Amino acid sequence: MHDLSNSTRAHYAQLQQALTALGRVLVAFSGGVDSTLLLRVALDTLGPAHVLAVIADSASFPSRELAEARGLAEAMGAVYRVVESHEMQDARYVENPRNRCYYCKFDLFARLVDIARAEDYAAVLDGNNADDLGDWRPGQQASRELGVRSPLLEIGMTKAEIRELSRTLGLPTWDKPSFACLASRIPYGTPITRDALSSIEAAEAFLQDAGFRQCRVRHHGELARIEVAPEEIDRLLDSALRARVTVRLRELGYHFVTLDLLGYRTGSMNETL
């Protein structure tokens, strides 16, 4: 650990201390950068017998992400469980208000809290970090109301430090692109449907298979607004690739396919709030 920055090393020690104090934890696990680090440190600190990873199988969670999460949990030797989420049964969530994430997180975390109580886990943990305070994240309200702990946020660990520590620990997610649920591609006020989520998932999978690591397909009815990293915009403008993308997205039901010239940025749907 000598190659870690002083702040990252200090936060790593604080994270271990916080987990030790809890003793037995349930980790809400998505396979993303944050929850993977949290799960790994929990396993190293407490041992697999005292940690349960729970993965949500949701209509807004791509199947390839679900498969990756399961594979990561298995590779780390974690005891894990997959639970089906029920947010699509909540009319308030489906209406897609600006606090949509609250209803999704409340549904999931309430179930995780029930599991933790029934199976004697001291706390439910999520992967929120210090940088998450700077964006619109109504799901954090649900976490607070249900008593879910966010140890990375509580100790002040930033995304950059999480990536640094993840790399040192040999985690394959250390440079994984950020990810948000597929529902975040749909403008607030536009109802969320399984068909829309399925189209978004397939469109983004096509772009990923074409080599775009960080991409989003924002769903505006018949119009798809593609975001890729600014440095990859020129590549997407290649005539042959552009034609392939257009054909595929039209097959998925989009009559108009556009490229956002600003490129990918986190939470672009929040820019209208």
What attributes characterize this protein structure?
273 residues, 3-stranded mixed beta sheet, 45% helix, single chain, 4-stranded parallel beta sheet, 7 strands, 11 helices, alpha/beta
Overall shape: it is globular
- The gyration radius over C-alpha positions equals 19 Å
Oligomeric state of the chains present here? single chain
Q: Kindly state the mean pLDDT as a whole number?
A: 94
Question: H/E order of the elements?
Answer: HEHEHEHHEHHHHEEHHE
Name the strands of the widest sheet in spatial order: 3-2-1-4
Uncertain segments are none
Distance between the termini: 42 Å
| Number of helical stretches of at least 4 residues | 11
- Number of beta strands: 7
Please describe what this structure looks like.
The N and C termini lie far apart (42 Å). The protein has 273 residues and is an alpha/beta fold. Helix 1 crosses helix 2 and helix 5 runs parallel beside helix 6. The mean pLDDT is 94. It is 45% helix and 13% strand. The strands form 2 sheets. The chain has a 4-stranded parallel beta sheet, with helices on both faces. The chain has 11 helices and 7 strands. The protein is globular.
Topology summary:
Layout: H1 6-22, E1 25-28, H2 33-46, E2 51-57, H3 63-75, E3 79-84, H4 91-94, H5 100-118, E4 123-125, H6 139-146, H7 151-154, H8 159-168, H9 194-209, E5 215-220, E6 223-228, H10 233-236, H11 239-251, E7 256-259
Parallel strand pairs: 1-2, 1-4, 2-3, 6-7
Antiparallel strand pairs: 5-6
Helix pairs in contact: 1-2, 1-8, 2-8, 5-6
